[in-house]
Amino acid sequence: MSDTLGIALVGCGTVGNGVANVLLSRPERVAQRAGRPLALRRVVVRDPAKPRDPLVARDLISTDIRAAIHDPNVHVVVELIGGTTVAKGVVLDSLAAGKHVVTANKALLADAGAEVFEAARKAERTVCFEAAVAGGVPVIRALGESLAANQVTAIQAILNGTSNFILTAMAERGMSYAAALAEAQKLGFAEADPTLDVDGSDAAHKLAVLAQIAFGVTAKPHEIARQGIDTIDAIDIGFANELGYTIKLLAEAWTGGHGHAGNGTKQSRGTAPADHGAPTVALHVAPVLLRHTDLLAQVRGAYNAVLVYGDIVGETLYQGPGAGRMPTASSVVADLIDLGVGRAQRTFAAAKLWSREGRGFTVEPPERVRSRFYLRLQVADRPGVLADITRILADEEISISSLVQHEAAEEGGGPVPLVIVTHYAATGRFRKALTRINALSTTAAPAVFFSMGD
Amino acid sequence: MSDTLGIALVGCGTVGNGVANVLLSRPERVAQRAGRPLALRRVVVRDPAKPRDPLVARDLISTDIRAAIHDPNVHVVVELIGGTTVAKGVVLDSLAAGKHVVTANKALLADAGAEVFEAARKAERTVCFEAAVAGGVPVIRALGESLAANQVTAIQAILNGTSNFILTAMAERGMSYAAALAEAQKLGFAEADPTLDVDGSDAAHKLAVLAQIAFGVTAKPHEIARQGIDTIDAIDIGFANELGYTIKLLAEAWTGGHGHAGNGTKQSRGTAPADHGAPTVALHVAPVLLRHTDLLAQVRGAYNAVLVYGDIVGETLYQGPGAGRMPTASSVVADLIDLGVGRAQRTFAAAKLWSREGRGFTVEPPERVRSRFYLRLQVADRPGVLADITRILADEEISISSLVQHEAAEEGGGPVPLVIVTHYAATGRFRKALTRINALSTTAAPAVFFSMGD
After folding, report:
1. Chain A contact set for B317 (CB, 8 A)
2. Cβ contacts of A349-356, under 8 Å, gap ≥ 24
């Protein structure tokens, strides 16, 4: 058996305690899988007085980041601080000091992946990040290794467990958004400030990481269009259900030409191939209506799932717990084992992530994505209203697939909801129609709309 | 970029043509991912006159296996013959000649894995087999690498696409077994002789391979208890549906103690920890009733899916096309890329599969697996019948969870179906009760029974 791999944990909150627990409670197993012992040498925390996993001996704990990074008996620094300021310094300093880095920090990778990976290449060290996307679901390895024969043509993913928990509670138990969020917070699925989860930012960070692996594009998080679940009304969940659909918050990547048959006649989600011929990919996070029978529609609670379309294999799905102490620790320790085996170093060198050696893809705005749309309007209950709306849609060459308008409670009452499902249309064109529809005197509130998943 | 990796395909049927197509149509992509060119140098077939993928140049093709194996420009032999006789010779000879081997041959691994891996270790060469289980779904890497921090405690998997296609057609379209099988054959999902698919043998081979990775046990296929779908009656699919369940053919592995809470009060599938304290695993293939909302219940058509329970991560699911030309080629080429990168060699050395270095598990007979059971009887429609049956179950300490008996078409008519769902009971004990029930003069036909998935 080879030399011991020394490990420093920097940050020891929920996930850090899980990682420490696995390493300290199952050393034989981890050594057997890694082909060498993995020794937890240091645990760096802000507040040493905080309660930790009982296996973490007091003398492992310190507040000295520098000492951990420069300890010659430490070969791998596991960054679990989160955020993009202190964490970035820890990662760059660790690489400069000749340490490999394992991180669960999607925000850091999305924000400064190029800088981090450039530093790693310069230092001839490896950065691993299986835990950064989808927690315990091994989607980084799936995209980077298992599907290496494929060019990915699309990704549809549930990457934020909090949002999925809330949507599941709203759909299955008829809860309001506020009540579902409160329950998620009570159960520990949502932070006290849930903004980044429910507004789509967390999912956008993770999508940026997946897009780097699948398409070689470096999309800054703020370049990824996003719409969260914080504006979803229970009425839309009800209408969706009536139409046979479930609303899910999806992170999506659509390449130009995905799903288009050679003869161009097949209609599906995706964008047309770009005129300039170079491959393109559109990235966005948004609530999407999925048929009840779709694989992703059936992902419940705080689970994550990633549906990947490869040009050779077709579609494969990866699903499991997207967060939490032990699931995320499972992915961090898998990275440590891979470093022990020597696999991670080979993968890092071969994948050339966040380098100038991309795959030729350029990011295009989601306006070009073709989709069917769900559109809910509040309209006056009087003659001619529907004629105005359908005329505007016809002007933009958007045809109507189905329509739901329930009888008003009383004649001559206030505005009533009208739901229209369209056939395929480019997002940009649909938005243009929307602007005109919103300007009609007969529509009482801005239209609500979502893409349909197929 | 490093040296070219030379490849010989031995066997060029459906999958072989797919592999050749990927290598020949996308050489730049494959070279980029592998860090070196992958060159298809030889294609060995039985009948050179057979039509092939048009990219396979005539001068690549020969019938000379020996020449391919001993070609100094060939570094990897891809065995796609299938079966366990010629294929075994090809694999052993290739290893002895210093070639790495990639194979999709689950029967060979299940039957002679120890011999093959011993030969590989002796020759210091690597054997890869992602395509051997679940086609395009990367479950070998998931178990061996991504989940390396975990001890797997259970596996439930749909590993035979033909059976799943037939069951889906029976459940969703009300087809008979014979009609569904005929359609599967017409669509190319089932062989002319479908025996190995529908009797559970193919799934048992694949389960044997998964069990080696997850538990280090070498279970000969004939040691894995199996029941296929060839005996499933449409009436049971109907009753299952009425109870809220779907019947799926599952390959299952349950370790001793899986799902048992520390205090022993929680009831679930699995076996009790063995008295001798050493870890045990029960392996079997059988139709199982799953709740409509279970992840595996929702796997439709020819898809495969593997649900893995890890002691750290919890449950993760891997799903996708389980067979076919391009999905299987995706996995074979991923193995070739891994050999190019140098990852596969590290994995092979670290995993020590089919070696004497097991994980201490012993295989136990499925009689000890605890399960709820679905039991259908044909009983005489007269007083006292139910009393006899429930008395026998009570004698074996098996309690009844629910019961369905529909009104007979006419009074005093022939035997009527009676469906009983039990609470948890050990399989052995349940079978004992069954023998006594079948011996009753009031039961008209041998009882039909299946496990329930939870």
Report:
1. 305, 317-320
2. A349/B35, A350/B33, A350/B34, A350/B35, A350/B341, A351/A144, A351/A213, A353/A113, A353/A117, A353/A212, A353/A213, A353/A216, A354/A113, A354/A114, A354/A116, A354/A117, A354/A118, A354/A212, A354/A218, A355/A114, A355/A117, A355/A118, A355/A121
Rounded Cα distance between A268 and A235, Å, is 27
User: Residue A313 and residue B333: Cβ atoms within 8 Å?
Assistant: no
Cα(A106)–Cα(A112) distance, rounded to whole angstroms? 10
- Annotated catalytic residue B220: no
Lowest mean pLDDT among A2-11, A257-266, B98-107, B226-235: A257-266
Q: What is the CATH number of domain B139-322+360-367?
A: 3.30.360.10
CA distance A340 to chain B (A): 10
Asked if the Cβ–Cβ distance from B312 to A330 is below 8 Å, we say yes
Active site residues of A: 206
Average pLDDT over residues B255-264: 61
- As its CATH architecture, domain A372-452 has 2-Layer Sandwich (3.30)
In contact, A297 and A271? CB cutoff 8 Å: no
Task: Give residue for tokens 């069951």.
Answer: B167
- How do residues B411-422 score in pLDDT, each as one tens digit? 666 788 999 999
Contact call for A318 and B314, based on CB within 8 A: no
What pLDDT, on a 0 to 100 scale, did the predictor assign at position B263? 40
Lowest mean pLDDT among A322-331, A365-374, B196-205, B231-240: A365-374
Average pLDDT of chain B is 92
Q: What is the mean pLDDT of chain A?
A: 92
Q: Is the pTM of this model over 0.90?
A: yes
User: Where exactly are the structural domains of chain A?
Assistant: 5-128, 139-322+360-366, 372-452
